[in-house]
Amino acid sequence: MRATDVTDEQLLTACDAASFERFYVRHVDAVLAYFSRRTRDAELTADLCAETFAAALASRQRFRPGEAPATAWLFGIAAKKLADAQRKGYAERRMQRRLGMERIELSDADIARIDRLGEGDDARAWLEQLAPDQRAAVRAHVIDERPYGEIAGELHTSEVVVRKRVSRGLAAMRTRIGVRR
Amino acid sequence: MNQDYVTQLRLQLREAALREERRSPLAGRAARVRRGLPGPAPLAAALALALFALAIALGVLQLRSDSEPVKPRVIQTFRVADNLLSLSGGFGAAWASDTVAGRVLRIDPKTRKVTARIDPSPPSTGRAAPTAPAPADVQVIAGAGAVWALTGDLLTSGSQGPVELARIDPRTNRVVTHIPMRSPSGDNFAPQFLVADDRYVWVIGGQGALRIDPARNAADRFVAYAPGGGTVAEGERVWTFTPDARLRELDARSGRVVHEVRLNFQGIEHLFPGPPGALGLLGLAGSTDLALIDRNSGTALWHADLGDDLRAVTYEGDDLWAHVSRAPDGPDRLVRLDAGTGRRTGEVKLRNTDAVALDRIGDELWIAEPGGTISVVR
After folding, report:
1. Which residue of chain B comes nearest to A148, CA vs CA?
2. Closest residue in A to B102 (Cα–Cα)
3. How far is A13 from chain B (nearest CA, A)?
4. Within 10 Å of residue A103's Cβ, how many Cβ atoms?
5. A141 touches chain B (CB under 8 A)
6. How high does pLDDT run on average in chain A?
7. Bridge partners, B44 (sequence order)
8. What is the pLDDT of residue B52?
9. Which chain A residues have a beta carbon less than 8 Å from that of B193?
10. Contacts 24+ apart (CB under 8 A), B15-18
11. pTM greater than 0.80 (yes/no)
12. What is the pLDDT of residue A14?
């Protein structure tokens, strides 16, 4: 099995250091982009990103494969960290302290890279972070405005399944941006 | 050579993960058991048995300490759309926002059927451009003599497109006007959601709150504040709190601070409206510890640990209903508290995680879920 064949879910549930490191490498840019677009602050983005992955590392045993994609789980953590930071005015370092991690000082190159990551199209970036089946369904129905029946026929599945994928995809996107009443 | 941020964080996480492995070898075994790989089955069985016994003991204690007058329960779940974002009761109907179709739905509380689908988007723009699903977002609320729908770029709080407030006449189900959501100086105040009472509608944003006068269909007050943790607006007053734990009351007419008091409840991070008619506000510490705060003295009158993250509250007579979530780990719950004392009087487990809104519809409590279903609790 090649490295790219291993799913995010398998990397998270493996519970060894190397697997989590691969999970981090796959998603660190997306998480940085997510925070950078929302905060427009490279320092805060870096702090939130570190805290998110620290929390993911500390709580990965609570991840349940099959209930939600690993990316949805990761961005659920990210959304909560962002909401906490918006309430408090700063990013907490609770999980990093628990894991003995130090705060990383950013170089000018780091700041430029994080700012660049934040310049993408928000909605498209969030769309790309969805699970493949949800991404295809949301793109076909919401962006291309195609009817459910037509999409179902093309994907060789039922209309009900396509409806669920669209619904769950949009819900996941909303969760990732931290919508809260 | 200096390493970049991504590499430094990668190395720190690797070292932390290795420390965790060394510190807790059982963790790795538990993971193997969950995946069905060979592991210490007797230990897992003993642990499960112990947890089961503990759960029974805690359950018995809980039953003894809680005298629940009437046990709330989910009596029905029905589907109205592909996705829902908000829900509000008024004018003999339930009003919900379908974010896939970008419509406001009018639902008959008796038949549970959708009786109208209303497009709240401005006629000039029509359906959203096919580049992103964001403009389909709609927040709806019933109050102040009409149904109001916040529509447009709610996904990024107005940073990438306009946000407008549509007024819907509940007698005809037609949009009668659109009001642009901008501060008096024309700035984006990051509109997020709506609150309404008998007289006014407030649009709460991340950087300010805008009041709408229904008699003129126009904004008549704007109060700016620093981005922070929650805002409560009512009539001529707006409450926020400062990073140094002070509750601040602002006059909506002048925008000035008219009262400020230190909170004696530690760690408040969010505010919710208090019980109707009471001179109190709900404060949330962390994400689970709820308190009723006297808005004059800043004193916590009661507090209650809800166990999971609080998402929304609503009131029903003397009861306070708190919607709590542990998403993505488990189903949401509705916790019923005595609004006067904070005592827990009931709880109901919901079918789904991440429910998006709740409101009182007649003598029932309706909970809107992202999959387009509504659960009814009585």
Report:
1. B82
2. A142
3. 6
4. 13
5. yes
6. 79
7. none
8. 44
9. 181
10. B15/A100, B16/A54, B16/A57, B16/A99, B16/A100, B16/A101, B17/A16, B17/A17, B17/A20, B17/A21, B17/A57, B18/A17
11. no
12. 84
DSSP for A18-41, please give it.
Answer: HHHHHHHHHHHHHHHHHHHHHH--
Residues of A in contact with B15 (CB under 8 A): 100
Q: Which two structure tokens, joined as six digits, stand for B257?
A: 């601070």
pLDDT tens by residue, B212-242: 999 999 999 999 987 766 789 988 899 988 7
Nearest to B371 among A14, A144, A167 (CB): A167
From the CA of A153, how many Å to the nearest CA of chain B?
A: 19
Q: How far away is chain B from the Cα of A128, in angstroms, using its nearest Cα?
A: 12
Closest CA to B349 of B373, B368, B323, B371: B323
Closest Cα in chain A to B18: A17
**B231 and B240 Cβ atoms separated by less than 8 Å:** yes
Retrieve residue A173's tokens.
Answer: 């996107």
**Three-state DSSP state, B109:** coil
ipTM higher than the 0.85 cut: no
Residues of A with Cβ-Cβ distance to B357 under 8 angstroms:
181
Place of tokens 């988007």: B121
Q: Please report, for residues A75, A82, B25, B243, B367, the alpha-carbon distance to residue A175 in angstroms, rounded to integers and kept in the order given.
A: 8, 11, 33, 26, 17
Angstrom distance (rounded) from CA A51 to CA A34: 14
Q: CB contact, 8 Å: B88 with chain A?
A: no
What is the rounded distance in angstroms from the CA atom of residue B211 to the CA atom of residue B205?
11
- Measured over the CA atoms of residue A23, residue A24, residue A26 and residue A30, the dihedral's sign is positive
Tally of CB atoms within 10 A around B131 = 11
Let me know: does B336 contact B320? Beta carbons within 8 Å.
Answer: yes
Q: DSSP strand E in chain A: where?
A: none
Alpha-carbon distance of B44 to B54, in angstroms, equals 15
The 10s digit of each residue's pLDDT in B174-220 is 999 999 999 888 888 888 889 998 889 999 988 899 999 999 999 99
SS3 B32: helix
Any idea which of A149-153, B84-88, B101-105 has the lowest mean pLDDT? A149-153
